[in-house]
Design a protein that fits this description.
Layout lengths: L41 H7 L3 H9 L14 E6 L1 H8 L13 H9 L2 E3 L12 E3 L5 E5 L5 E3 L8 E10 L2 E6 L16 H7 L3 H9 L14 E6 L1 H8 L13 H9 L2 E3 L12 E3 L5 E5 L4 E4 L2 E13 L2 E6 L6
Amino acid sequence: MKKVILNISFFLLAGGLIVSSCKKEDEEETPIVTPAVDQDDIIDVAIAQGFDSLAVALTEANLVSTFQGDDSGPFTVFAPTNAAFTNLINTNPAWNRISDIDNALLTGVLKYHVLDGKVTSDLIVDGDFVNTLSGYTFKINTTGTVTIDVNATTGTGINVTAVDVDASNGVIHVIDQVLIPSIPTTIPTQTIAQLAVAAGLDSLVVALSEANLVTTFDGTNGNFYTVFAPTNTAFVNVLATNPAWNRISDIDNAILTAVLTFHVANGTIQAGQLSDGQTINTLESTDLTFNASGTTLTGGSSTAVGISNVDNYATNGVVHVINEVLLP
């Protein structure tokens, strides 16, 4: 299956344009999407198409320069309509306009709408998770009406109302709601590597060290990951399957690397985003399949591997604990 990695960023005001803040009482109109002029960047297109509230939001979050100019990107932006922003503001009595939203929250929300790279509608894989600039993921369904699911357990269906609005530094798809990631209530302070040490996943830490993968998960590369972390007992059990393996260092490095990357997906995929039969693309390239009824993973030569502990958040992703080592 082709892996699609989407990063969501927002467009800001271009030179000289003044846009008023979006108020609750304002009557918003859905922008009329027309073909963009080839030389227009994402910001120019957003302004020309009437995404006034998005422009205001980008300005407030100091993100205009990120998406302005042909040298930026390319990006894929899922652009909420003005009405979508009005509906968002109406969810909180303390918000009368976009500028009332906490800046850090607004920035995270806006980045959740942007993918890194230009992903036109024909490249989107049904049911695939896409990775946003915020580090959090969402799922796109293309069967029937094209929708976005932020959280599979709540059946969130956000409609994609227009696609492939071209810009010189990316592409815009229009959506009818503002996407809100499920942000942890407690802000994590440890990287995935640190969390593994603190959680006592000693065998996983040793394996990562043997495969020279520690730096991949120490937060220095700026990427976000979902790790399905085997317990110490799981590693003991896999060593027992081969008489030549007395310790993790006895495993051929290429095999160990393939096995470990089979436990990792790009982006922060939370447990609540996984639905029955959901396919998860791994760094090793072999897919995993989630089974909701038994809360298990299957894939490669592994069947019904149980997930025992979920949503252990790190600064660069999330860790779910499993009771067996997955074998691609």
